[in-house]
Design brief:
The protein has 147 residues and is of the alpha+beta class. It is built from 3 helices and 8 strands, in the order βαβββαβαβββ. Helix content is 22%, strand content 32%. The structure holds coenzyme A (COA).
Length: 147
């Protein structure tokens, strides 16, 4: 896993999370902000096989000094739930954010991905309930304290 520029994470982000839509649909507002961190995992042939991005963003209901929102978490379709790529990427990137002083990471978790976050130490923000994100589906708020 390495830090990566936004353009390196977008093709896999688009393929997995915005299928059938133009690549522009995989451009997130603060992708190029200096406070944003993108991570990519690579196969030996340099293909990007896992991506995750973190945006400096508060969740209104979760107090924190340096909160990050996880977005665009995706493993290549042929490798999902097979090689632990998402787990490795998540753990290493959370470790780096922790060392940089981040004290909270949160995300809108798609319901099918909820077991992945639960297995990796995230907690459900029960009071947020289920949130419908138009065109994408139902989500819950999950978070992990880092400090
Ligand atoms: C969710 C995702 C990033 C996880 O990455 P991954 O590389 O597939 O996950 P891992 O191989 O590290 O899985 C670790 C464990 O998480 C859990 N898990 C992961 N994805 C799961 C899913 N879709 N359903 C149930 N459990 C899941 C399982 O316990 C899994 O271990 P197991 O397969 O031995 O049971 C990946 O499956 C993916 O890209 N899914 C589609 C896009 C998506 O939903 N992204 C998250 C948006 S919020």
């Amino acid at each position: 896993m390495t830090l990566a520029p936004a353009h390196a994470v977008r093709p896999l982000r688009a393929m997995v999370l915005r299928p059938g839509l133009p690549i522009e649909a995989a451009v997130f507002p603060a992708d190029e902000a200096t406070t944003t961190w993108h991570f990519a995992a690579y196969a030996p042939d340099d293909t990007v096989i896992g991506v995750a991005s973190y945006f400096l963003e508060t969740y209104p209901d979760l107090p924190a000094k340096l909160p990050y929102r996880l977005r665009g978490m995706a493993t290549h379709p042929t490798l999902q739930r097979r090689a632990g790529i998402g787990t490795a990427l998540l753990r290493e990137s959370l470790g780096l954010l922790r060392r940089q002083g981040a004290d909270l990471v949160w995300c809108y978790a798609r319901l099918p991905a909820v077991p992945f976050y639960a297995k990796n130490g995230f907690l459900r923000l029960d009071r947020a309930g289920v949130i419908e994100i138009q065109g994408i589906g139902p989500h819950e708020v999950w978070y992990i304290p880092l400090q």
